[in-house]
Amino acid sequence: MSVLTAVRDGGIIAQRNFTNVRRTPGALVTGVAQPIIFVLIMAFVFGGALGGAEYREFLIGGLLAQTLTFNSSFTAVYLAKDLHHGIVDRFRVLPMSRVGVVLGRTWSDLITSVISTVVLVLCGLAIGWRATTDPLTVTLTFLLLLLYAFAIAWVGAVVALTARSVEVAQSLGLLWLFPVCFISGAFVSADSLPGPLQGIAAWNPVTAIATASRQGFGNSAPAQFQEAGGWPAENAMLYAILCCLAIIAAFAPIAVSQYRRISKR
């Protein structure tokens, strides 16, 4: 089937998923509550020891990267639910693109990421965060965040299609998130981490998204923070885009291959 067919079918599946979200808005509670909780904890529980108001401004870029990464668990859980409830079995007997089913899931989950981003930005504004760059740069930064949300959703799709059980998908979908998000420069300078963790954090895509967000919004690190160096930090926007494209290139074919393998059973 052609690319246009896959895009068309993906749009239909995404519309179906949007309808489910409108009918069950409670499914978005976690996407709304999680950013608020993390802002309160990181800004006021740890923020005082890490730089106060300066750290709160530095924090938002990291929280945006972390929140969008965590949202991949929504893709994992809801795709696993469709598999478990037999919805995907119905899709398999229809003359539709196999790519479209997974593509529609990743597209529709962008609504969760958009809502989480809006909530997080509003929380940031409430605690004193501001974007100080020009409107075009701010817009491009938000577009980068949406690209990352779409890319990381493919990781969730692979988790769901590998686990094929809601419980296992939920566990696996969260298991990898904590080391990826916290061994990074999301909340501290990557150069402040010990030994080999410093190199891992410097090249971590979460670090790239957090750093690119801070640069795009004009947010600087607290004066006492060790400034990260190296190519990823100096070319954060470019590296962040490359990371997003690499994640899509690596995980989208795996997800589609796994879906096709399921479809042949």
Automatic annotation (TrEMBL):
<dbReference type="GO" id="GO:0140359">
    <property type="term" value="F:ABC-type transporter activity"/>
</dbReference>
<dbReference type="InterPro" id="IPR013525">
    <property type="entry name" value="ABC2_TM"/>
</dbReference>
<feature type="transmembrane region" description="Helical">
    <location>
        <begin position="26"/>
        <end position="46"/>
    </location>
</feature>
<keyword id="KW-0046">Antibiotic resistance</keyword>
<dbReference type="InterPro" id="IPR047817">
    <property type="entry name" value="ABC2_TM_bact-type"/>
</dbReference>
<feature type="transmembrane region" description="Helical">
    <location>
        <begin position="101"/>
        <end position="127"/>
    </location>
</feature>
<keyword id="KW-1003">Cell membrane</keyword>
<dbReference type="InterPro" id="IPR051784">
    <property type="entry name" value="Nod_factor_ABC_transporter"/>
</dbReference>
<dbReference type="GO" id="GO:0046677">
    <property type="term" value="P:response to antibiotic"/>
</dbReference>
<keyword id="KW-0812">Transmembrane</keyword>
<keyword id="KW-0813">Transport</keyword>
<dbReference type="GO" id="GO:0043190">
    <property type="term" value="C:ATP-binding cassette (ABC) transporter complex"/>
</dbReference>
<keyword id="KW-1133">Transmembrane helix</keyword>
<feature type="transmembrane region" description="Helical">
    <location>
        <begin position="139"/>
        <end position="161"/>
    </location>
</feature>
<feature type="transmembrane region" description="Helical">
    <location>
        <begin position="173"/>
        <end position="190"/>
    </location>
</feature>
<feature type="transmembrane region" description="Helical">
    <location>
        <begin position="58"/>
        <end position="80"/>
    </location>
</feature>
<keyword id="KW-0472">Membrane</keyword>
<feature type="transmembrane region" description="Helical">
    <location>
        <begin position="236"/>
        <end position="256"/>
    </location>
</feature>
<dbReference type="Pfam" id="PF01061">
    <property type="entry name" value="ABC2_membrane"/>
</dbReference>
<dbReference type="InterPro" id="IPR000412">
    <property type="entry name" value="ABC_2_transport"/>
</dbReference>
<comment type="similarity">
    <text>Belongs to the ABC-2 integral membrane protein family.</text>
</comment>
<feature type="domain" description="ABC transmembrane type-2">
    <location>
        <begin position="26"/>
        <end position="262"/>
    </location>
</feature>
<protein>
    <recommendedName>
        <fullName>Transport permease protein</fullName>
    </recommendedName>
</protein>
